[in-house]
Amino acid sequence: MGVPRGRRAKTGLVVGWLALVPVAAAGQAAPEASQGAAAAEGRVIDRVVAVIGNQVLTLSELEFETRVALVQRGGVRAAEARLDEQTLRGALELAINQRLLVAGADRLQAFAAERSEVEARLKVFRERFEDETALLAFLARHDADLEQLFAVLERGVRAERILDSRCRLRAQVSEAETRRYWEEHKAALGGPYESVREALKEKLIRERYSQLAKEEFAQVRAGAKVRRVAPFAREALP
């Protein structure tokens, strides 16, 4: 099933509160988020969470992207749970990082996502659900459609490609570094070096990549204009 052309328009009026990070598990609703969209003159009112450069991120967009991330991690049931402030703050940091990376690539007309790669990501996402009806029901509950889902997945693919281009090579770990780490921790690791070599090397690469990614995000944010609008968004991550 392809991605339909045209986006279903959201009913509503956007108002603000005027002002590679992980998504936490969903829990109780955040005080602000739990109020959801309020009715006004028969229309749904959305709220601005943050302004990232010249992009406005609304609460409904953030909540949808959070739930998409939860589904991608295999938590279809968790994706329907109420979202707490910690979860939304973590998702907001991810949303900010992705948008800044992609905006920078757009200015250079670089790192376009291959449609086949995004469709493969969409296929995996579909498989998290019992059937197509369940997927469409999930989208309908969040006033979204397949095109909006495709756009979220595409941005994620592009952000990952950009980050990989900057971090993957630098994250590589040499044989000497791997062995040195094993020598320093072999009492805890157990077993001969060869039996843990591959897993240990992957661990060290992940850790180095994570640190490099944090540095890249910090650099991207240094020159960016990001304004957190929602009260929960203005609080620092723990």
Overview of this protein structure:
The protein is an alpha+beta fold and 238 residues long. The chain has a single domain (13-173, 214-234), classed as Orthogonal Bundle (Triger factor/SurA peptide-binding fold), CATH 1.10.4030. Helices cover 57% and strands 10% of the residues. It has helices spanning 31-34, 59-72, 85-108, 115-127, 132-141, 146-167, 175-189, 193-222, 231-234, and strands at residues 13-16, 38-40, 43-52, 55-58, 226-228. Strands 1, 2, 3, 4 and 5 form a 5-stranded mixed beta sheet that branches. Strand 2 (38-40) and strand 3 form a beta hairpin. Helix 3 crosses helix 6 (146-167), helix 4 crosses helix 6 (146-167) and helix 7 packs across helix 8 (193-222). The longest helix has 30 residues, at 193-222. It is globular and about 60 Å long. The N and C termini lie far apart (41 Å). Mean pLDDT is 83; it is low at 1-42.
Spatial shape: globular
Largest sheet: 5 strands, mixed
Helix content percent band: 55-70%
Beta fraction of the residues?
Answer: 5-15%
**Termini Cα gap:** 41 Å
**CATH topology description:** Triger factor/SurA peptide-binding fold
SSE series = EHEEEHHHHHHHEH
Count of helices? 9
CATH architecture: Orthogonal Bundle
Structural class: alpha+beta
Rg (CA only): 20 Å
How many strands in all? 5
**Unreliable stretches, pLDDT < 50, 5 or more residues?**
1-42
How many domains make up the coordinates? 1
What's the CATH class, please?
Answer: Mainly Alpha
Average pLDDT reading? 83
